[in-house]
Amino acid sequence: MTKIRLATIWFAGCAGCHMSFLDMDEWLFELTKHVDIVFSPALADPKEYPDNVDVCLIEGAIGNEEHLELIQEIRQKTKIVASLGDCAVTSNVSGLRNKYGSAEPVLERTYFELADLQPQLPYDKEGVLPKLLDRVYPIHEVVPVDLFIPGCPPEADRIIAAIEPLLQNQQPVMAGRKMIKFG
Amino acid sequence: MSVKTLTINGELISARAGDTILQAAKDNGIYIPTLCHLEGLSDIGACRMCMVEVEGINKLLSACVTEVAEGMVVATNTEKLKEYRRMNMELIFAEGNHTCAVCVANSNCELQDTAVAVGMEHTRFSYRFPDRGVDLSHPQFGIDRNRCILCTRCVRVCDEIEGAHVWDIANRGEEAEIVSGLNQPWGEVDACTACGKCVNACPTGAISYKGSSVAVMQRDRGRIPFLAAAREKQQWTR
Prior knowledge:
The structure holds 2 protein chains of 2 kinds.
Chain A: E1 4-10, H1 16-22, H2 27-34, E2 35-39, E3 53-59, E4 62-64, H3 65-77, E5 78-84, H4 86-90, H5 104-113, E6 132-137, E7 147-149, H6 156-167, H7 177-180
Chain B: E1 3-8, E2 11-16, H1 21-27, E3 51-54, E4 61-62, E5 73-75, H2 79-95, H3 110-117, E6 134-135, E7 141-144, H4 153-162, E8 167-170, E9 177-180, H5 197-201, E10 207-209, H6 223-233
């Protein structure tokens, strides 16, 4: 049997969802029987997103230009795109800055008002860091999403219950407090 | 006492004349989701979560403000209702700032619970990220209007049970918001007795005890129904 090609990616989030993913503990051994992890900031480190990915778990919201570019590439090269955690599903904490209407007040506060030594924007040198978008988006507002796994973070058991059916080519049932409670 | 006989979800039930569909359903163990309803307060049909289908009527009715009638045929859980309830819930979430992960009421929240009950795992509507302000001028309590769903349970409990009428709704449409006194900071409203009934009535994290951190806010959900039962039925103990 050919193994399922699994990717994970981490956009505007805190790594908590990936911590939760690693918190699946011994089930990770079970998982590796069925999948090849082909791209993941936590578990594999190729620099380019590969072709023909079966499932991609997405942590975090779309918050900067690099995210916006990469999510398009991921959608093109992936069969099942799953939003993992509240930031991917709702923009959550990453989206709290949206009430300011643009990235400027946040950058101003962070890099000028709170600067101790050298107040300056981090991307003054061209191409060093991707620019923040004026609005943070949940994944499904940018590309179609096939599966939503809410939670901040989604507990390991919830992630297992959501991806185990995918290994058998079935759609998981996302219902009930154990599976869809936000926060 | 006059009795009405009606059908809910194909089940023949009897209810007291004057009861609402919601009351009749509850008495017969039939769950209808609600947000603005609170036992002991008047019902106003604000949140639209309890919409039901009644045979022969071409629109959806709020179960909390519709009285039972003889021979009425009610459906509470059709595919159409499930879809509308979920859409309603998505709109409520998109309208305010309901970020469960950083809310005082996380895991003790009727809005969060009802979202689970209607199967909402994401919203199809873009969040609006309003900036409606936070009022922490009261010495004991605080209100974050961004978490308010305008259910008016605080308005009604303060008016009907406490008799102080500190709260009201100002403005209309998307600008509607809960205000205290004559649109003053809560801490400056002389009429407020600091009884805390609004804190116990609030279904979300909007009104909370000051100093509550994420997910630590606990409410006494039975307090308002108990006070109402004490007044109306002279039941002095819980």
